[in-house]
Amino acid sequence: MTTGVSDPKELALGDRQRWLSGLPPATPRPWWQRMLRSPLFWLTLVLVPFYAYCLVDQYLVLHPDRTFPDGTVALGLNNEALRMAAFWAMWTALAYCLLFLWLDRFRPQRPLIWLLTFLWGACASTWISIHVNSWAGEMMQTTQADADAGTRPAIFIAPFVEEASKATVLFLLIILYRTRIVSQISIVALSGLSAIGFAFVENIIYYGRVIVYAMNTIEVEDPTAAVKEMVMLRGVYTSFGHPLFTMMTAFGLAVALGARSKWVRITAPLAGFLVGVAGHMLFNGVASLYPIEQLKPQWYMALGLVAILVLYLILGVVAEARLIRHRLNDFRMAGWLQERDLVVISGPFRRIKLLTAALFRGPRMWWRTARFIRLVTELAHTRAQVTRGTVGPGSDERCHELVHRIEELRSKALTETEGLTILPPRRRRRPAPAPAPTYPPPGWSR
To answer: Pro residues: which segments have biased composition (predicted)?
Structure first.
């Protein structure tokens, strides 16, 4: 696509202005140059080996038995216990991952970003927390017998360390890949993926310890029941804890991204982080100081808070749909979009219907339809950034590019839900042609 600028210096200047505004460049480049210039490529190149190191180091810490100065031995997590614990922890992680991926459907991130975010919580965040919390626990030990010595790190140290480590990946993505992260719902979904990755590995550790203890202690009559009790406690009843606290930081980041004031951009993430830490401290304190039988009132209060959060997310989805409709209306009034584009793209269930129907019509149709929805949504968000004043020069040119790409895909993708069936209509087979009539050979008379 031509941009109307022929001077290479002006092209380079325009691309720099677009880059500073968080917009992709207008100058076409080969795939390898796009890859080398992509922050996501370098982030992946650095994080994947780091993730592998974190997992191996945690395994070396948790696998062997530990002998304390008083002669007591803490059994390590053997491979069989880790496999069983991973099986039980997998289902909670899978359910929450599907929930957060479904939530991030208006302008979904790339699957690689989803994976890196989940692995950050599962590998890097747990590695940081296990070392910092262990060091802090040793620093807070006293020489006298104190029943609260084991609860102090969990209440006063672990919330700060864990919430900071889980939210670090959000700041990395926003700084290095801010082109794609413009939706508040998207930031909340990414925070949930990081938190559920952390909870996944933490549950493996807790389940594994229960399994090893039950297999090596004769007083435990039914090891399977003991494991299931821990699974129900951490994997069902209190499974909302880590996602809930990390979402507080995500809400602060979402407010900061949509604000034009520098003070709001600084204080909003800090306030969200402190709220998440306070909730985490309260959660750990209640769980550490009171027996499980006395926690029903607190559990109901926590469920009420989760219900309020779910209601907020539902309202956030409605607000996201309304924003897309209003911002696309600007282009409809200019004659660049159709009336039905506003209705279809801003409707969550209509978008799902389009993608589902395209899936049954082949991978090419699905890809073109998903691309069409993604481009129209990006057009709406780019326009929203323009109206808020959070994007610099190059946004108008980017909108023109998106409109042209949308029109190119319109005839190749599914764009309308009225009269659309999920399964493609069957083609009726034409009846076989009737056989030609046969006649007896003519009798030739001489």
So the answer is: 432-446
Could you tell me the sign of the dihedral formed by the alpha carbons of 192, 251, 383, 39, in that order? negative
Question: What does the block give as tokens for 29?
Answer: 């480049």
Domain definitions of the chain by residue range:
36-140+149-289, 322-411
Residue that wins the pLDDT comparison between 22 and 305: 305
Tokens for 298? 């607190």
Cβ proximity of 353 and 343 under 8 Å? no
Report the DSSP beta bridge partners of residue 66. 74
Q: Residues with Cβ < 8 Å from 236, sequence gap 6 or more?
A: 92
Among 29, 10, 26, 6, CA closest to 397 = 26
Q: Distance of CA 173 to CAs 31, 41, 117, 191, 199, Å?
A: 22, 12, 9, 11, 21
Query: With contact defined as beta carbons under 8 Å apart, do 235 and 88 qualify?
Result: yes
Of the candidates 305, 330, 81, 111, the residue with the CA atom closest to the CA atom of residue 209: 81
3-state SS of the chain: helix, strand, coil percent to 5?
A: 70, 0, 30
State the DSSP H helix or E strand holding residue 80, giving kind and residue range, or none if neither: helix 79-103
Measured CA distances, 39 to 46, 180, 442 (Å): 11, 12, 86
* Residue in this structure with the two tokens 């794609």, named with its chain if needed: 180
- Which among 138, 141, 136 has a CA at the least distance from the CA of 156? 136
What is the average pLDDT score of the chain?
A: 83
**Sign of torsion over alpha carbons 289, 291, 294, 295:** positive
Q: What is the pLDDT of residues 291-350, one digit of tens each?
A: 666 667 777 777 888 888 888 888 888 888 899 999 999 999 988 899 999 999 998 889
Give dist(CA 184, CA 146) in Å, integer: 45
Of 398, 366, 359, 403, give the one whose Cα is nearest residue 382.
398
Element (H, E) at 67: strand 66-67
Look up residue 139 and give its amino acid.
M
Residue 3 scores a pLDDT above 50:
no
DSSP run (H or E) holding 74: strand 73-74
Question: What is the CB neighbour count within 10 angstroms for residue 446?
Answer: 2
Tell me how far apart the alpha carbons of residues 371 and 355 are, in angstroms, rounded to a whole number: 10
